[in-house]
Amino acid sequence: MSPINPQQERILKAIDKALTQIFGKEAAHIIYNYIEENHEVRKEEIIEKLENFTRGLEEFLSTGAYAIEKKILEDIYSNYGLIRRLKFERFSGQQDFVNQVKLLMTSR
Known about the structure:
This protein is mostly helical. It has 5 helices and no strands. It starts with 5 loop residues before the first helix and ends with a helix.
């Protein structure tokens, strides 16, 4: 596992914050465990295995995952400020969650 940079850390925190706010700590823990057991993604590996994490989240929550993904992206955007948020929102209809997060990780 490679070390995570500050942008990746913000993304991990946004994911955890969204899951915890919506479901509570215990349910978020159950979601993390499900994804780890069924998709081999530990919490600290989410950035490296983003596609598998997203697949597991969508499998566990079905269509509810899309609302969670939107909340995660909103939290990430809020960390980047309004100008960056507007820049990234232009692409929101064109790209899926994984691609948007990757775009955020490569932006400066």
